[in-house]
Amino acid sequence: MGRFSRKQWPLATKLTITMTGLVILAVASVTLLSLRREQQTFKQELEHQAEILLNTLVVTVSDPLYFLNIDFIEELMAGLSEDEILVSGRIYEKEGRLIAKAYDDNLLTYSTKPDPFGQKLLQSTEIVFYWEKHQLLAGKAVKVGNQSLGAVSVGLSTAPLQQKIAVMRNQGILVALIAASVSTILALLLNQSITRPLKQMTEATQRLASGDLTQKLEISSNDELAVLANAFNRMTSQLQTLINSLEQRAEALHQSGVLLTQKVQQEALINKLSKQIRNSFDLDTILETALQAIYNLLQIDQCQFFWYTSQPNPVWDCVKEAKNPELPTGLGKYPVAENDPFGKEIFNLQIIRLSNTVEVNDPIKQQLYFSWGSTAILALPIVTKSRKIGVVCCRQFSSPRDWQDSEVELLSAVCDQLAIAISQAELFHQATSAADMAQERASQLEQALQTLKRTQSQLIQSEKMASLGQFVAGVAHEINNPISFIYGNIAPAQEYAADFLHLLALYQQHHPNPAPEIRQAAEDMSLEFLIQDFPKLLSSMKMGAERISEIVESLRSFSYQDQAEMKLVDLHEGINNTLLILKNSLKAKANHPAIKVIKEYGKLPKIECYSGKMNQVFMNIIANAIDALDDYNQQRTPEQIELEPSTIRITTAFTESETVVISIKDNGPGIPCEVQQKMFNPFFTTKPVGKGTGLGMYISYQIVVERHRGQLKCNSLPGQGAEFVIEIPGYQD
To answer: Is 70 exceeded by the pLDDT of residue 462?
Structure first.
């Protein structure tokens, strides 16, 4: 059978091609041998002519080469150019350089470099032949005795050979065509008696292979072909009988297989749904699995699940579907009409089974199903334990469908499992809802407790800050009174001292020789030193009084700038006051290297904010940076500290969006990621017990984010320091 399945050429074609090919091959072989023999003969003749011509040229140019008779050589080259069979001629001197050549505008030439072919001729004692495509190049050395005078070469055209070969080739082709025509005619005559019956048998066999068992061969001859045709006819009759029997058995097996497959698929679907019920209480997952399984198994256009809802208005709510991707979605809510025939049958727990909606006799039902665009419908109701009504609806749109009893049975079993699953999911949902409500209530209580704790801590912290502010303001006031008195008297004291010293200088000028007692007293009190040091002493007292005044002013500014309402303030002044208060913590002490503060202030306008609260934010962040650097320095060697001193860099800027950006960055150990996630939570601290309350960063975050509608961010990587960025609007609404 496989031999006949491949496409082959007919026997007549093969026979014709074979005979024609053999004749053409024979003619081509004879022609090719003739061409080769003729070509060989021509080459020998051409080489013989070249040999005679070269011997003549050698004798002719011997004396001119010896005496370098240029005129004779030029005349010789001109004579060579007139010979039709010659296509090139060259004369070389004894070093192999080209001195003359025919078939060129300049017959005489002189090359400065030796020609490779000329050198080859000078080294050879025989004639050198070199065949090229269009010429035979031959050359020979010119010698007198053992002395080389030069060499000559000629090129003989092979055009006559090419013309002769072309004539013979054309003759061979003509002979081959005539022989092929004759052989083709003979093959066709032979085909009439042999290949025609074979062709009939071949065509009959191919139709038999394609399934046509009615083929009969009718051959009138009495030879072996007729015997073969009768055997073929008997074989087709037997095959017809055998195939009819096999088809009947195959149909019976197919029906049994279909029924068995349907049973297996139904059992698999029921088992899958049962497993889904055991493994999940998610109603959406159960519905999706069931609908997709029904859609794939029944090969329908659409499978949907509806819930009936009566409040506030009766609707059929399509919550899940499995459908042909080309169909539009049917999800959504559909109002229920007063005399809904579909709903009445579902409420009565009846199965709706319509193979062709056009054949429905009830005009109301027909109009309803026509509005749906369905040609066939199979719908089964589901009632849960909570008396909730649902529908599994299978629909066909392309053509009517005869719903089989096995399909209805399958869908009924699926709906029973769905009813169980939905009931269990409802119970699980009720239990989960009760647990969620209890958990939510517990979370609310926990949140209320945390809020209460934070509020209590904030009140305590606020009270502490208020008390501290009052105390600092009182101390600043008490210090400010005597300092004002001292500072106010320093200037007159400096003037009096200057007058006394001027008077003393005049006295020394006019009385250079005072009494011995005066000289002794001046030496005892180091009068010259007093004269130089006393103005410095007064200046130092003035500087100290000014320093105390600055500290007092900073304390007052830090504590008493109003917290109750926003004011336009200079944030740089608040940062400077904070640094002034913390100056003692920044100085170098025993086991406490100095911390350098680098201020990179931008140009800031006065900002509308709660200045006291913002000072508190600056205080918390800078104090934390100082603590972190102190702890970090305890882990470093003096060499490491000297190589990389501790620094706090404060940068301010005012952006185009009228936002103030303040960056406070240290070069400490950095803050781990897990700490960054919790650092703004209340009562979270990494400091030892008794050293930190865990409220500093939390309160700072509340001040920046909630009070000023800004942002407080931390940028840090372990080993690369920590940066706190404060962003607040320049003007509050």
So the answer is: no
